[in-house]
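Standup, Tuesday
Yesterday: got the pipeline producing structure tokens again.
Today: sanity-check two examples.
Blockers: none.

Example 1:
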Amino acid sequence: MSNLGLAVRDSSTMLRRNLLHARRYPSLTLNLLLTPVMLLLLFVYVFGDAMSAGIGGGDRSDYVAYIVPGLLLMTIGSTTIGTAVSVSNDMTEGIIARFRTMAIHRGSVLIGHVIGSVVQSIMSVVLVGAVGLAIGFRSADATALEWLAAFGLVVFFTVALTWIAVGMGLVSPNAEAASNNAMPLIFLPLISSTFVPVDSMPGWFQPVAEYQPFTPAVETLRGLLLGTEIGHNGWLALVWCLALTALGYFWSTSMFNSDPK
């Protein structure tokens, strides 16, 4: 069998392994998924009218349309924390040492984690999107091409954050440390345009919120689904996705290949 064939076969095996782990131990994924769902319900039903007035909307439904695209991307950041924990568990519990004694493709372990996490993240986004639809989110004006572009952005952003989470898991000494190290993936959406427009923030803070990874991605997704202005955010989102994917990939593979355990 060719090297490519071995890589595909072994990566598929590792993917099945990670999906089985997620099915057998769903509590971590469910706990991380509850964060964006609870924030969505809280901001819509408790703060919705006030927040809608703050963004120049008429009622709560305007704020539903505003917040759902951001919460979809926050769901990705939340779900990938489970990836960091899973990778850390593999590294500290000895299974990786066992894999290294077997005739399997070396990169298949990380590839299985990444693909498994992407699948779980997309499923989580679908669930949060369903909650958004249930409480009134609509995207009637988006064309089929815009929906396809929105899906592509979600997948690309998921891959980028997943590779970063894998790197965080590899450098963490235990699962608790991995969870703590990955907390910025939940914290960054809170200081982006997910909940309020960037121009409503203090002037000194606006550049921080505007040029971090989540804001361009949120504004691009919002523009694709709602027809709002995207401007330079589309290019910024693409650059961030490419940069984070490359950084996470080279960081993760370097740490994995140099780890003596």
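Example 2:
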Amino acid sequence: MQNIREGSEKLLEKGRPVALFSSLKVELSAIIVFSTAIAFVMAWFLLKVGLSGWIAMPVTMVVALGITYVFSRGLTAPLKQMRDAAESMADGRYDVRVNADERRNDEVGQLARSFNVMAGELEHADKMRRDMVANVSHELRTPVSALQAMLENLADGVVEPTEANMNRILDQTHRLSDLIAFLLDLSRMEAGAASLNTEQFNFADFLDETVEPLEIADAGHNHNVRFRIPRSITLEGDKDRLRQLFTNVISNAFKHSDDDTDILIQAHEDHIRGTVVTNVVNFGTQIPRSERADIFRRFVKGNNGVGTESGGTGIGLSIARWAAGLHGGTVRVVDDARGPDFEITLPKHHDGDHNQGSPAPAAL
């Protein structure tokens, strides 16, 4: 019975006589005019054949109401589906969708398509949150297990507290610290905004300081970082937030580059727009255009390549986009024949308005 009812509703929806209108008001008006015209013609005919007005008028009204009801069901069917879908989503089922006719351009059709987009985003966010629990558990377990084993060996006298062994323990604590920092950044993103301590600084010196610890962590992979940055460029912003931005983008380049390959960091000033444009290019596998927007979504992890980090939590590039947005800037992947090219555009001077109520990156 349910399938029959849904099938009839689909048939009514597809067969709507007002499907060409782009406004719900116009559609409702057309239904009223059509029903009134049918009722008038029917009343005239019944009276002409000699039927009493006391009989003709009720029959005419029933027919007019029937026509209005049949046609209006096609208009309101998606609303009922959205109600049922919203109830299912409230119970934790995010895979439900509304049968949205792409040919329908009125407000209800637009609402149905927007509802499906929203449902898809919620389903993706729910899946990514579940995956993040597993990712974080794995990321925490690895360094904790390593630390436990190393400390037990030291306590039992199996190994000596040499400088090399102490450095291994320190590396694991750094890994734990990085993961905790990621989680703290995620909480700031969820809060939606963060205060900025802006200052003016030399951009080339800032990038040198940012890349240096990344190159140390990259030891053994032999990535060669090449700079093409004029020493005259200055930038105004929060150095800590901007360091998050560039660290995550450059770390991503390290992670997805083969050993013994180059990574190019170049920058220039756009004097017309008053911005500083930085391109971070690695010479690895190109990112398909269809995936370029997704990699900046929270908890989305790209294909793991040879690099310095583990699989990660999938929020590094999302944090980068958040930090850029706080400064009124952007980060995106642009076409470049050489390889994946992350272009970061930042205002040269901070006007103080970008960090007020900046929204956290969506699950887009």
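Quick observation on example 2: The chain has nine helices and seven strands. The beta strands are 198-202, 224-228, 234-238, 262-270, 275-282, 330-334, 341-347.
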